[in-house]
Design a protein that fits this description.
UPF0111_domain (chains A, B, C), Put_Phosphate_transp_reg (chains A, B, C), globular, Methane Monooxygenase Hydroxylase, Chain G, domain 1, homotrimer, 206 residues, PhoU-like_sf (chains A, B, C), Phosphate transport regulator (chains A, B, C), disordered N terminus
Chain lengths: 206, 206, 206
C-alpha cells in the first residue's frame, strides 16, 4: 500500500541527506589521514570522532522522527535499515583511522590511497542519492555504480593483500596493515549494502 | 496496528527473561575464566557449552511460540530479531572462552577483566529489561546505558590493542590475544544491537 | 495473511533452485582447489568467478521478479533475506579460494578437506530444499541437519585452529591459514542462516 507524501514528511529526506554529507566529510578526513604522519593522524582521529557524534545524532533524530510520524516515506523497516547501514559506513571509516593511530603505522602502500578514493566516490554518490530518495526508482545509476565501485575496491584490496604479504613486512606489520585494508574493504561493502537497501525501496515503490 | 495482549502472551516475556538470565550466567563463567589457569578454563568451557545449549533451547522455544501464537506482543520480525541478537551475545562470549582454551593463552592483560566487567553490566541490564518488555517505552534508561557501556568497551578495547602491540608479545601471541579481545568487543557491540532492537520495539509501540 | 499461489509464481522457486545448484557447483570447485597446486587453484579461481557472476545474475533476476510480481510465495522481506543469505554463502566460498590463491599457500591440513566436505553436504541439502520451498513446513529435516552440520564444522574448525597454532607454522603462515579456515567456518555459518530463514518462512506459513 502506498501513501501519498505530505510536505512535512520531507524531514526524512533531509535527515538522510545530512548523513550523506557526514559520510563525505568522513572520507575527506580519511583521505588526508592516509598521507599524514602519526601526529596529524591523531588530530584527524579527533575530528573523525566529532563527525561520528554528529552521525549518531542524525541517526537518533531519524529514530525519533519515525516514532513521531504516522506516515513514513517508505516502510519503517527500510528507514531503520537504511539508517543502520549508513551508520555502518561511518563506523568502519572511523575504525580504519583509529587502527592507523593505535598501531602507529607509518607510510601506507599507494594502493591504500586508491581504495580510499573509491570510498570517496561511493560516499559522494550516496550523498547525492539521499536527497533524491523521494523518487528512488530514478536512482538506478547510483546503485549500479556503487556496486561497480565495490567490485573495484575488491580488486584493489586483493592487490593490497598480495603486496602486504609479498615480503617487505614482518608478521606484526602484516597484522596491522591487514586490519586497516580489510576494514577499508568492509567500508566499501557497507556502501554497497546501503545501495541495496535503496534498490529494495525502489523496487517496493514501483 | 496494536493488539491488546491476552494473558497467555506472557510466555514470550518469560522466554526472553530466561535468555537474559542465561546471558548473566555466561558472563559469570567468562569472568571466572579470565582469572583462571588453562585446566580450569577448559572445565569452564564445558560449563559454557551447557549454558549455550540452554540458550539454543530457549531460542527454539521462542520460534515455536511465535509459530503457535496468533498474536505476538510485538511484530513477529522483531521477536525473531531480538532472539537472534540475544543468541549472538551468547555465541560471542562462548567464542572468546573457546579461543582462550584452544590457544592455551596464559594470564591476560588486566584490562581484559575490565572489558568483561562491562559485558557483565550490559548482561545484567539486559536481563533486567527482558521481563519488562511489556512496557518497552519505559526501558529508555536501559538502552541509553547499554550504548554508553558499549562506548566504554570500545575505549578499553583500543587501550588493549595498544598494549598487545606495545612490544611484550611476539606475533603469534598477538594474533591469539587480538582475537580474544576483538571477540569481547564484538560481544559488547552485540549487546548494543539487542538494545537497539528494544528501542525499535518501543518506538513502534508508542 | 496468506495468498493462494498461482502457477506463474513458480518462477520464484526456479530462481532459488538455480542458486542452490550454483552453490553445489561452487563447492565442487572449492573441493578440487583444496587438493590442487597454486597453478590449478588460479584456474579454479577464474571458474569460481564465473560461477559467482551467475549467482549475481540469479540474485538480480530475483529482485526483478519480486518487483514485477503482485503476489510473492512468501513475505517479500523473506524473499530478499533468503536471496541475500544464499549470496553470502557463495561470497564466502569465493573468498576462501581467493585467499588460497593470493597468499600462495601450499598443501593445506587434511581437516580443511573435512570442513569443505561439510560445506558440500550443506550445499547439497540446501540445493535439494530450494525447489521444495513451496511446502516449507516439510523441510524440517533439512534445517535440523544443516544446523547439525554447522556444529560439526565448528568442531573441525576448532581442531584446525589448534593444529595451525601447534608449532609447525610461522606467524605469517598462521595468519594466512587462519583466514582461510575462518572463512570456511563462516561459510558453514552462512548455510545455517539460510536454513534459519527457511525455518522462519515455514513457521509463518503454518
Amino acid at each position: 500500500m502506498r501513501f501519498r507524501l505530505r510536505p512535512q514528511d520531507d524531514g526524512f529526506f533531509e535527515l538522510f541527506a545530512a548523513t550523506g554529507a557526514i559520510l563525505v566529510e568522513a572520507c575527506r578526513i580519511l583521505t588526508e589521514a592516509i598521507g599524514s604522519d602519526p601526529v596529524r593522524r591523531s588530530e584527524l582521529s579527533d575530528a573523525m570522532e566529532e563527525v561520528e557524534h554528529r552521525g549518531d545524532e542524525s541517526s537518533h533524530a531519524l529514530v525519533r522522527k519515525v516514532n513521531s510520524s504516522y506516515l513514513t516515506p517508505f516502510d519503517r523497516e527500510d528507514v531503520y535499515q537504511l539508517g543502520a547501514r549508513l551508520d555502518d559506513c561511518l563506523d568502519l571509516m572511523q575504525k580504519a583511522l583509529d587502527r592507523m593511530v593505535v598501531y602507529r603505522v607509518g607510510a601506507l602502500p599507494d594502493a591504500v590511497g586508491e581504495l580510499v578514493q573509491v570510498l570517496s566516490r561511493q560516499a559522494e554518490l550516496t550523498s547525492e542519492a539521499m536527497p533524491r530518495l523521494r523518487s528512488p526508482a530514478a536512482l538506478s545509476d547510483y546503485w549500479v555504480e556503487v556496486n561497480r565501485l565495490e567490485n573495484q575496491a575488491d580488486q584493489i584490496h586483493l592487490r593490497l593483500l598480495a603486496e602486504i604479504f609479498a615480503g617487505g613486512y614482518d608478521a606484526v606489520e602484516i597484522i596491522k596493515h591487514k586490519e586497516i585494508v580489510d576494514t577499508l574493504e568492509a567500508a566499501a561493502d557497507a556502501f554497497e549494502l546501503v545501495a541495496q537497501t535503496v534498490e529494495t525501496i525502489a523496487v517496493k515503490g514501483s
